[in-house]
Amino acid sequence: MDYLSIKTLHILSSVLMVGTGFGTAFYLFFANRSGSVEAIAVVSRLVVKADWWFTTPAVIIQPLSGAWLIHQAGYPLDSLWILTSLGLYALAGLCWLPVVWYQIRMGKMAVAAHAEGRPLPARYWIYARRWERLGYPAFSAMVVVYFLMVFKPV
Length: 154
Prior knowledge:
single chain, mainly alpha
């Protein structure tokens, strides 16, 4: 593939990764605030699916296509914007991995609570708070990565 094709793939996968992450977080955040166990059960299951179907492939494509683009464009690997981007991408990943773990557990708890007609357990809300707190640095890091990718400051 040529440079522009890989760049297009890189841009589309970054939009899919960040967009899916932001969109699913938006829906689960507000489903949680609705207090509806049924809504939370449905949304939490779909959030997990969206992460596996969309976010995970994009997370894999991003560093591969980015490395190829850096190499083809001839940017030095020790450029501050590249090193900062990699560090922030790693930070986002370190936040995302436990987020996925929490989402899976939260989804199972919500589905079970809905099926049994009972309220969500206290552990669900502990996980929900942790899930939310991890989302802020991850999303913020990716916003800065977008800035660095576009402007490539020297």
